[in-house]
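In this notebook, the sequence line spells out the residues, with the fold written below as integer tokens. This is how one looks.
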Amino acid sequence: MAGRRVNVNVGVLGHIDSGKTALARALSTTASTAAFDKQPQSRERGITLDLGFSCFCVPLPERLRSALPVAASEARSEPAEPQLQVTLVDCPGHASLIRTIIGGAQIIDLMMLVIDVTKGMQTQSAECLVIGQIACQKLLVVLNKIDLLAEGKRQAAIDKMTKKMQKTLENTKFRGAPIIPVAAKPGGPEAPETEAPQGISELIELLKSQISIPTRDPSGPFLMSVDHCFSIKGQGTVMTGTILSGSVHLSDSVEIPALKVVKKVKSMQMFHMPITSAMQGDRLGLCVTQFDPKSLERGLVCAPESLHTIHAAIVSVEKIPYFRGALQTKAKFHITVGHETVMGRLMFFSPTPENFSHEPVLDSFDFSHEYLFQEQFLCKDLVPTDGSEANQQAGQTTEGQCPQQQWALVEFEKAVTCPRLCLLIGSRLDADIHANTCRLAFHGTLLHGLEDKHYAESSLPKLKVYKLKHKQGLVERVMDDYSVIGRSLFKKETNIQLFVGLKVHLSTGEQGVIDSAFGQSGKFKVHIPGGLSPESRKMLAPGVKKRGRGGRGEATKEEEGVERPEPAQPVTLSLTFKRYVFDTQKRMIQSP
């Protein structure tokens, strides 16, 4: 809010050629320097290539006035009539510009999904709807180009498309969202300007009824998402963007963290109006001096030293249900944070099985807890089938249930600068843009950033993610009442000395300890402190009766080659232990 003006950001999203820019132009009374495809490349190609910003103002609806701060309502020096400023964020619709769309969606309070009424939902309409579900709380659908419908059948066609859209929204959080027909530019782009748009006043009334004043907090460190940067002769360099948190005033020092540059604010404007301060949610042009605009196309500006550059992050993750296939550990995805998109490799992990039902914690990460490694993100439609011990354990323990919360360690190929708790979206942008598939794979909240370039040595050992290992072998024979020989637990080349002292469980109920290797073929000796029960000795009787000719407890070459009868009933040996993924010593840990 600036001078009794309440700002709300409304995103204009949809498939290419659905008429988004024409709609933004029809609604707007004031355009920014980057509105309505002013870029030469945009005009040349006839499509939106970047975010465009414009606005219109209306008297603040009566129902919203009670939400104004009392001090602002009572200030005598300000106009009596508070204004609602609706900032329109015109996003590109082309599939290859999805990075820009995601960046734009993260700064909006309400989304207008623009649909070409003659075509209905298209691939990018669907992707925009997915982004809206992640980034927005409110949606309204605009059925554009109704002038292209035959006049006699127009209303029937509008009603039919309205029903289709209602059905599409049924399984989303936008179920029941309002749908309105318009013709933003009757006759198309080449039509004369004398053709008046249809349904625009009704759309403005609908917007006024749907908009609510978002919670804006001027406190906290200043952070602004910059989407355009350009120079003005004799003035300096202007960075335009949306304030994500905090507030800024004339003469404040601000930092461009990606470049480690600090500058003083010379002047500020909001849609060509000079202002002295701005706060969270405001659209702002911020002028500094002696700064090359080419060095920052888009990015972040913040209070000095309030943001850090990170090389990896721990993220709370949710899979996007429309993405086909599994999210695999070690897979690479395009990771979008704000206006920045970089490649990142993921490792998924979950709570320990007994904590699967715990409520999600979305504002912090606890390094003191233990976590279970996952070969893939666990979800109900992808029950683990790869046989990995960790996933088997999770599946068995929870009987197919999925944890309430899952995380990923994201390792960025290129360092990124972003605030904690920011939105992060993972996608497969290398997928075929003509295929009718969702490229957006997951979204999440960045809980903890790893700033040290050598985080693998300095930070990851503190992350207690373990793999649960489970091995099974057989008791070959009994040596005496307190010792058995086991086999089939290790390979011939395994260094059994590493496993000495680990506990094993016999299927007959006894617990033993691996004592030593036995010969050279992967067999081993197990000491049973409590001794074998009479029932166990009976089951293993054949092995007791036909003892080898070598000395008791010694494995001779002759003994190794002797064929021995198996016990009457097979008795299995189970070895279970945890190995922490980031333990440099690769220790094997067992529960007490």
In short: The CA atoms of residues 226 and 241 lie 4 Å apart.
